[in-house]
Structure formats: C-alpha cells, structure tokens
Amino acid sequence: YRKQKNRIHTMTVEGAILTDPANLAAAAFAHFDSLLGTDHPRECALNLDDLIAPSNLDDLDAPFGEEEIWQAVKQLPARKAPGPDGFTAEFLRSCWPVVKQDFVHVFQQLYALRGRGFSCLNQALLTLIPKRSDAAGLGDYRPISLIHLVAKIFAKVMSLRLAPKLNELVSPIQNAFIPG
Hints:
Strand order of the largest sheet: 1-2
Order of helices and strands: HEEHHHHHEEHH
Oligomer: single chain
Helix content: 40-55%
C-alpha cells in the first residue's frame, strides 16, 4: 500500500499533464539535474600543500584505521533512510563486530585507489517528498539524496581528519560555521 501511495502517477510540467512513467522520470531528471547536477568539472582544486606546511599533512593522507572508521560510524546520524546499498547507520552499529573487518578492507581498498574510482560509489538515488498533499508539479516536491553508507562513512572519516586543521585553513573572519 505504501509504495502505491508514494508513487507519482501524474504531474503537470509546463502546462502538460504527464502520466507515462518514462515521461515523468525524464521530466523529473531534467528539472532536478538543472538544480542539483554539475555542469562542468572544477577548473581549480584546493591544494592543501599551499595552505598547510607539508609536514602537517601526514595525518590527512594516512591509511584508514579500524578505530577512526568506528568513530565515524558512531557519529553518523540515526533514523536516516538507507541509500542504494540498503544499509543504515543503525544496522552497521549493531553488526559492527561481525562486519568491521569487511569495512576496514573496503577503506584500505579506497586508500589504495588514491581517489580513482570513487565516482562509482559517490552516487545517490534521488527520491521526491511532497511539500504539500496536493502536489501537482515538480516544484511541489523536495528532493532528498539517498547515499551509499560507505560514502557517508568516508565523508565522516575525512571530516574528522580535517577538523583539527580548520583553524589553519580558514581565516578567523570566515569561521562562522566552525565549532569552538
């Protein structure tokens, strides 16, 4: 019942009423790709070597350890929708003793790839949540991204590694969103 209730059967796009699932999907993709998609790769990248003395970067570029992965897992928010892999943070926390070696191995593989191939994992499913009960057009829906759990953990591990360096990276006049 819930799947049927949550399904979008009809939508008004530019004055036309769409009912065909393929047309609905194409319209949604075009609309949200223009809002959320990336048009061009970045022309410049952040070069940490220019910002921090190289001797201070060693801990940012170290292999991932079991304890830092576990710290990231513990800090993931609870009660979030699963991503394309179907796993939630609660599942991982409850099964950690059983799956931790597999996750450590995955993170060792990610480290060995040195950033190559991460784009396959860094993908999301987009689901549309109606903003109101009589949602009719694409503007009446709020998109949420459902991200792979490994990608969430990777981002958390990297943010935990980077957090101690933020005072060196961000000017005091631009640190409004840095804790402390």
